[in-house]
Design brief:
Elements: H1 2-16, H2 19-36, H3 47-59, H4 72-93, H5 104-116, H6 122-131, H7 138-147, H8 154-164, E1 169-178, E2 184-192, E3 198-204, H9 209-219, E4 228-231, H10 239-247, E5 251-254, H11 264-276, H12 286-302, E6 329-334, E7 339-344
Parallel strand pairs: 1-4, 4-5
Antiparallel strand pairs: 1-2, 2-3, 6-7
Helix pairs in contact: 3-4, 5-7, 6-7, 9-10
Length: 346
């Protein structure tokens, strides 16, 4: 009796409702029946089914009354997920406003300019970039300069200092050579920074402070000394040597401990001497070493080109005219044939 009464009330209610609501209710029920008729153990709705319920919710206010297979909260969650996907897509497709983002290569160039020119500000870097053909604002340069590393390399600053004052700097140092009859010999030299010229070279078995002072006096016999004289913390360069250097009118400058790069010109000379000569000969005695080093110093000054002098020699080697076709090139041995010098035959 109760079921019959409920059925009659439902029929009366549907007679009063509009045709649109009946069609939508019929569509919703058919959709749910189609989902339930699928031969799967677990009920699973695809993207089309989820999109159907999201669309029905937009066009029909009584959609939740006919919903059976899921809860209304589930449909609302599908709608929010679709809303997020839609606006994520719109945000990705939107046109960027403002200036175009600068490339990575340009950012690296700004960082390089900041590192190599610590005294430059944004106007200086921006002006240099404009001369290179880059079109960007000074504000952009200033913003990227704030992200650059401001740590300066100590070796680079020291190298810049030496380069700017090379005419006033000389350096001295020792290196050892093993011989067959005399054991270890100590080689002392003084070299100027401007033209890499060896001002004094000598060999001894027992170096002392008085001997070093005498070598310094012979390095500058007729002219004034360099303003600065670099040397390391070798025990042979004691107080007597420092006092003598000051009396000669030069300012002694000691390099830091375990920092051979601060006296790079002297260290480079030692390396070149070993690579060009000493690694290829067997030194017999002190006389033999002096003869070899005298020949090497002559080759070092007049023939050997140096990277630090733009491929020139300390003595200033003349550049020959371009030889004509078929001209003969002569070869002159140096250091017993270890090295050669070439010139156009007359």
């Amino acid at each position: 009796m109760f079921c019959l009464l409920r059925l009659l009330l439902g029929v009366l209610h549907r007679c009063v409702r509009s045709r649109r609501d009946l069609l939508l209710e019929n569509l919703v029920l058919r959709e749910q029946v189609a989902v339930l008729n699928r031969r799967k153990r677990r009920l699973k709705l695809g993207r089309v089914n989820k999109l159907f319920w999201v669309a029905i919710r937009r066009v029909w206010t009584e959609w939740s009354r006919s919903l059976v297979i899921v809860t209304p909260e589930t449909v609302l969650r599908w709608h929010r997920a679709g809303f997020r996907i839609y606006w994520s897509w719109r945000s990705g497709c939107s046109v960027r406003c403002g200036r175009k983002r600068i490339s990575r290569e340009l950012r690296e160039l700004i960082f390089q300019m900041v590192a190599e020119n610590p005294t430059w500000g944004a106007p200086g870097v921006h002006g240099e970039l404009l001369k290179l053909g880059f079109d960007l604002s000074e504000r952009t340069v200033s913003r990227w300069m704030q992200r650059a590393s401001h740590k300066t390399d100590a070796s680079r600053r020291w190298k810049t200092l030496l380069s700017n004052h090379r005419e006033a700097i000389a350096a001295m140092d020792f290196f050892t050579v093993s011989t067959i009859t005399f054991g270890v010999l100590h080689c002392f030299f003084v070299i100027s920074h401007d033209r890499r010229k060896i001002l004094r070279f000598s060999v001894t078995r027992h170096p002392s402070a008085l001997w070093i002072v005498q070598q310094l006096r012979e390095a500058w016999p007729y002219k004034s000394t360099h303003k600065f004289l670099l040397f390391d913390h070798d025990s042979k360069f004691g107080k007597d040597v420092v006092t003598a250097v000051r009396e000669m009118g030069s300012e002694p400058v000691r390099t830091a401990y375990r920092s051979p790069w601060q006296n790079g010109v002297a260290e480079r000379l030692v390396q070149s001497c070993r690579r060009d000569l000493l690694d290829h000969v067997i030194v017999l005695n002190e006389r033999h070493l002096k003869r070899l080093m005298a020949e090497y110093i002559r080759y070092y000054h007049e023939d050997r080109t140096h990277l630090g002098l733009s491929k020139d020699t300390p003595a200033g080697r003349l550049v020959s005219d371009r030889p004509p076709m078929g001209a003969s090139i002569r070869s002159f041995p140096r250091l017993g044939g270890l090295h050669h010098r070439y010139s156009v035959a007359a």
